[in-house]
Amino acid sequence: MTVPITVYPRHHYVLGFTTALGVGYLTLAIFRHTAPIQRLRRLGGDWTAAVIPRLLAVITFVAGALLLFSGATPAVAARIHWLNAWIPLPIIEVSHFAASLAGVMLLILARGVERRLDAAYHLTIALLIAAIFLSLLRALDIEQALVLALMLAVFIPSRKYFYRKSSLVEERFSAPWIAAILLVALGSIGLGLISYANLHISTETFVRFATHAQAARFLRASAGVLATLIVFAVLRLVRTARMPIPRPTQADLQVAHEIAGAYPQAAAQLAFLGDKSILFNASKTGFIMYGVHGQSWVSLGDPVSSPHDAAELIQSFIRLVDQHGGWPVFYKVAPHLLYVYLDYGLDVVKLGEEARVSLPDFSLEGSTRKNLRRVWRKTVDEGYSFEMVQPSQIPAILPELRAVSDEWLRQKKTREKAFSLGAFTENYVRRYPVGIARKDGRIVAFSNAWLSGNKIEIEADLMRYTADAPPGIMRYVLIEMMPWAQQQGFSWFNLGMASLSGLSVHRGAPFWNQLAVTMRGYGERFYNFQGIREFKQWFHPVWEPLFLISPGGAKRPVILANIAALISGDLQGVVRK
């Protein structure tokens, strides 16, 4: 005997409930990401690239919810009767089951859409197309098919926002995402139990196939939805864990050397200091150099790659860090990729400003550089001379350079730094040209120079001098290095970063700015923040901001301590200088 089913008009509450869910989810998503988006707008960049994938993720999530909720409620009897006259029952049954599976898959894919995965884009389009036909085949649901068609129309022209190559199984699903997926999946089952108020759940009902046996279809579809979620969860749990990436081999360093040779920023040469690991992309056209201290996995600078490959490298690094339970940190990054970092929910704070001198415009002539001209003239009149020594000539003067370096370390009561600063090791110093200042034939000061690819930039690294050198000796060395770089065809001379420089402290400034300025004031006795800024300002540089990208809140002080430990060798080195 057939159990009568009470049928309610489905579109009145299914679409209403789904719309409410979508609006609520959209509101939460936009509210959650308002602060990062606002920061991105202030800092510059394509803020629409941060917003649109999130909106498309909401659309994908709502499409999945729509399919699940409509599959959990009775269809209009007249439409089912019409379908039965034209379409075989097996097709109706398969369509109902497949539509619910498409719904739960869209819920999962919404996370990949938010993360801009290329595969998520293509799978979502395929599922939306399939869902349109399945909506018509399972219940002649014209209204739902039109809504899904509109969603598809929004998706198709958004291809440019999906550039990441990754497996969805390896993506991290945060607690809110897991809760949202379970809420919709379990909510659809609850809605079905309410819709089929007199449903008797049994094996007989589960295996019953008939035109108007909609309750049985609901039970089978719900079982399929739960099975899909369980299989996906198991795949994530048993996915292969990656082993820690070892220090680079000589072959790796050779590949990195070729990549850095085409990179416009000279700081890429820090990859060859020997204290960092290197993460290449799959095609080995770019890399990230990083160090690990505590839970902080610190990438030094932006990826050394073309802008096209940078997003993939950032994603690979964050995934690697996540697999090891660490915190992804990007130290001293430029503004042009901020929107990519913000897409991962990381916080941005300004570290300071980098001083870069335009070499085509550099000259000692004119009133603006009269102080530099005076220092240069005074040093020359006192009998000092300058020479730019090429790498092939450095072995002959290495003992003298070592003596100057050791004296400088004793004078400053410090030890060699690392990670983001060069250290005096023979293999490292022999890689680059060195500018030296002599007095009576004796070397009294030197600075080595990183050279970027395509002669875009040169950057001074080590700056060391003897105790009896005059106060302006390093200005003299840099003044002489700049015309040499001009003659070599370089465009920019990088003087490095002035930490905690250029931070605004007005009432509306971020708390970090106000705290950092306070730290700068109290820390002036230990680290000459203002003096370093004034030293670089002598050259009238262009000041460009550099940022720290990392988890925020209480983790940030720990992260800063870990970065300081990487630079100083360990936490004791931070205290001892």
Task: Tell me what the structure shows.
- The chain has 577 residues and is an alpha+beta fold.
- The protein has helices at 10-32, 34-43, 48-71, 77-86, 89-114, 118-139, 142-155, 175-195, 203-206, 214-237, 250-260, 307-323, 338-342, 370-381, 394-412, 426-429, 473-487, 511-522, 529-537, 555-568, 571-576, and strands at 277-280, 287-293, 296-300, 327-333, 347-358, 384-389, 434-439, 442-451, 457-465, 492-499, 542-550.
- The protein has an 11-stranded mixed beta sheet, sandwiched between helices.
- Strand 8 (442-451) and strand 9 (457-465) form a beta hairpin.
- Helix 5 (89-114) packs antiparallel against helix 6 and helix 6 runs antiparallel to helix 7 (142-155).
Distance between the termini: 87 Å
Q: Major sheet: order of its strands?
A: 1-2-3-4-11-5-10-9-8-7-6
Q: Structural class, please?
A: alpha+beta
Shape: elongated
Main beta-sheet strand count, sense and barrel state: 11 strands, mixed
Q: What is the residue-averaged pLDDT?
A: 79
